[in-house]
Design goal:
This protein is an alpha+beta fold. The strands form 3 sheets. Strands 1-5-6-12-11-10-7-9-8 form a 9-stranded mixed β-sheet, with helices on both faces. Strands 14-13-15-16 form a 4-stranded mixed β-sheet, with helices on one face. Strands 2-4-3 form a 3-stranded antiparallel β-sheet.
């Protein structure tokens, strides 16, 4: 059965491919009018470049191969964000704010979940060169606008800040193993195991860590966090950043989750995730990742988000595309050929039958070109026995 694909890979057939491509164009156009310039990194890079920043979290999910030209190890990109950071830091080398966007397939050795694809179609936007909270607000608003444009408005946008846990972990002097164990328990909101792991810690660290899973909800969460967490500079600054975002984005469905630490080893500030109805996982994720360009020669502030176009296209309400126009073969009719050319220039889909072809198996045709009194006119296709796709 050599037509079968590996697990967690799938073809996009015409209807799905059309939805994905239409959505890609719509969202990239949205990014463009907001000043985000399109870049197209390569599918393959040297492995050490791909494992910068978020790449370390994706090390086991990166396909590796040996370059027959250089003999060095290459990786198939598991995430486009580090590539865009490389472009900003090393190739563009601009001094001020740079806004970039991208779209392309990435490849994972293992799926992120039982139902996830191993070839997500990643689309995103990144803002470099501005350390203030206004940049985070801009990309969150752009993410929300992209979801609305896709027909999948965010029902909830969770905000968090990895600076809170970083401050607690630093004060506790945690080693890497214990820090990793705490991260897993916090992300799973496993309070009993968390309580057991923190039992020997001193106050106020113990109480602060145990409070994180419960610090989830609306704007009242920030007031609760102020009471539950020690008033250390890093913690206070993180909560103030979240308050500023809440104040600057009053029209968005913001909520807060101080135990959401996914991407902890990559992000170093605000993190956010957008959720929609009828889908369990986040439809878009992002956050601040200052300094990721350091490995490429420039230490730049950075913030951005990404989403999976294929997931998004599957969730979006599918508007029935306009039908195509069926035309007879124009080989012996210059007027018909001219009419077809004019229609296609207008953006109409015209399926021209080949000699002896009687119907179209391709796009759905709801109209046809017929000759009436020497003129080629468009008429609706009626009846049920029209095998035209």
């Amino acid at each position: 059965m050599n037509w079968l694909l590996p697990e967690h890979f799938a073809d996009a057939l015409p209807a799905e491919a059309a939805r994905i491509e239409s959505l890609r164009r719509r969202l990239l156009d949205l990014f463009r009018v907001h000043g985000y310039e399109l870049v197209m990194p390569p599918l393959l890079e040297y492995l050490e470049s791909l494992l910068t920043g978020s790449g370390h979290d994706l090390r086991l999910r990166t396909f590796k191969l040996v370059d027959q030209v250089s003999g060095r190890t290459l990786g198939v990109r598991p995430d486009i964000t580090p590539q865009v950071a490389r472009i900003d830091a090393h190739l563009l080398n601009r001094q001020g704010v740079t806004r970039l966007c991208y779209s392309g397939s990435v490849l994972h050795t293992l799926p992120a979940s039982l139902t996830a694809s191993r070839e997500p179609m990643q689309l995103g936007a990144e803002l470099y060169g501005y350390a203030g909270v206004a940049a985070d607000g801009e990309v969150i608003r752009l993410m929300a606008g992209a979801l609305r444009a896709a027909g999948v408005p965010a029902a909830r946008i969770d905000l968090g800040h990895v600076g809170v846990f970083r401050a607690l972990a630093a004060a506790a002097g945690l080693d890497a193993e214990l820090e990793g164990a705490l991260l897993l328990l916090l992300q799973g909101k496993d309070v009993p195991s968390l309580r057991e792991l923190c039992a020997r810690m001193d106050e106020p660290l113990r109480s602060a860590l145990l409070s994180l899973p419960a610090l989830y909800g609306g704007v009242e969460t920030l007031a609760a966090a102020t009471k539950a967490l020690p008033a250390w500079p890093q913690v206070t600054a993180a909560l103030e950043t979240l308050r500023q975002l809440q104040a600057s984005l009053p029209d968005l469905p913001l909520s807060f989750d101080l135990a959401d630490l996914r991407g902890y080893h990559y992000h170093n500030g605000v993190v956010f995730a957008a959720y929609c109805t009828d889908f369990a996982s986040a439809v878009a994720r992002g956050g601040r990742y200052d300094g990721v360009g350091r490995a490429f020669g420039r230490d730049r502030p950075a913030t951005g988000f990404s989403m999976d176009l294929r997931d998004l296209a599957g969730l979006a309400a599918s508007d029935r595309a306009p039908g195509a126009i069926l035309a007879p073969c124009s080989a012996n009719s210059a007027p018909l050929a001219d009419t077809i050319a004019v229609l296609r220039a207008r953006g109409e889909v015209v399926v021209e039958l080949l000699p002896s072809e009687t119907h179209s198996e391709g796009p759905r045709c709801d109209r046809q070109l017929l000759e009436r009194d020497g003129q080629w006119l468009i008429e609706a296709i009626t009846g049920t026995d029209h095998r035209n796709g």
